[in-house]
Design brief:
71% of the residues lie in helices and 0% in strands. It contains 15 helices and no strands.
Length: 371
């Protein structure tokens, strides 16, 4: 089974931004006119609106304090969150379960004996020991976290419930009880398992919006402002960072900050029917911003002779070519969304994230060499 190799987790911008924070603090303070010394828990735990995400004219209010609070907590969670997220890529219990027990609309379907044996063989090959040990570490570290403890605690609890429901399914078919009750309990366990997945994803979605994606967003948004301040807006570095961030925002919004993307599964709209129109309009809004920036970059005359340029012409032309291809992928996704043909969206979405990450890596390597 083909799986995405790695979750496109936090931006590698940490070293660049953190080292620059001290050097440019006075300059940034003048830009903000007023330095905010403290930030409330409400500010740190707030969700970032789409309008704020797309606003590149203003530095996010209290960005340093919000960033500091999140970044200080990230080391204790980061590796474990990645391990848990990667677990669902590498050992996707649901994907294998669905092939045997569910139809295209996730309704329960009675399997035959061969399918049950295939399921039990698959389940026996899933090693949950790493998963259990990571959960224990997360619970221990979460006890003393007064800021993010509730968010993370809710997610941890949903993971434990999901694991329990998966175990219940395995034990039920392993015991052969389905032969005695004609799958009556199997249908109940199926409903409980699907509900546990829904709750697990919802809890992660909240954690991702306020904790994981927010840190990545603050890092990249800050890079755009620093690039403008240090290199000026006649060099491509700021626009390249901006385009990369816009594509990140599109991808996260596409999946509604969900925890897993599987290229082999048909895309499912991650919002309820009543919210689907706003969801589509938000994606169109981001698509429009990406196209607008792409058109601006196409017609803009950048300087490549200034020593401050940092990005040379060849790297810029490569990034420009890749980003045009990325826009074509976004246009294809939006066309499929509007036509409600969801079969290829996951594969295209994963390719889009991969390409965006790769070109960003090239830009950052160039930046690192120039410093």
């Amino acid at each position: 089974m083909k799986k995405i190799n790695k979750f496109l987790f936090l931006a590698i911008l940490l070293s660049l931004v953190l080292s620059n924070c001290q050097k440019k603090e006075e300059k940034l303070t003048n830009t903000q006119n007023k330095k905010v010394e403290n930030v409330s828990n409400q500010d740190v735990l707030r969700e970032i609106s789409l309008d704020e995400m797309l606003d590149f004219e203003h530095i996010p209010k209290n960005w340093k304090e919000e960033f500091r609070e999140i970044a200080e907590n990230m080391p204790s969670y980061g590796n474990n969150v990645v391990k848990i997220s990667m677990y669902f890529y590498e050992k996707d219990f649901f994907y294998d379960y669905k092939k045997i027990f569910l139809d295209d609309n996730n309704n329960f379907v009675k399997p035959d004996e061969k399918q049950i044996n295939d399921f039990l063989k698959m389940a026996s090959e899933k090693n949950f020991s790493d998963f259990d040990s990571v959960i224990q570490v997360l619970e221990k570290e979460n006890k003393n976290d007064k800021l993010f403890g509730k968010l993370t605690g809710n997610w941890i609890e949903s993971l434990k419930i999901w694991k329990l429901k998966a175990d219940n399914l395995k034990n039920y078919y392993q015991s052969g009880d389905y032969k005695k009750d004609n799958f009556a309990k199997g249908k109940t366990l199926n409903s409980e398992y699907l509900e546990s997945i829904k709750q697990r994803k919802e809890k992660y979605r909240k954690l991702n919006k306020i904790f994981i994606f927010k840190l990545k967003y603050l890092l990249k948004k800050t890079a755009v402002f620093y690039a403008d301040q240090q290199y000026g807006n006649n060099t491509p570095i700021s626009d390249l960072f901006k385009e990369s961030l816009l594509i990140d925002i599109f991808c996260y919004k596409l999946y509604d900050w969900n925890e897993i993307y599987n290229a082999e599964e048909t895309f499912e709209v991650p919002v309820e029917e009543k919210d689907s129109e706003k969801y589509l309009q938000d994606l169109k809004k981001i698509q429009s911003e990406i196209k607008k920036l792409s058109d601006t970059m196409e017609n803009k005359e950048y300087e490549f002779i200034n020593s401050k340029t940092i990005i040379d012409r060849e790297i810029y032309l490569l990034a420009k070519k890749e980003n045009k291809a990325n826009l074509e992928l976004i246009n294809q996704i939006m066309s499929d969304m509007e036509n409600k043909t969801y079969t290829d969206i996951n594969a295209i979405g994963i390719l889009l994230m991969k390409r965006n990450n790769e070109i960003e890596q090239v830009i950052r390597k160039q930046l690192a060499r120039s410093r």
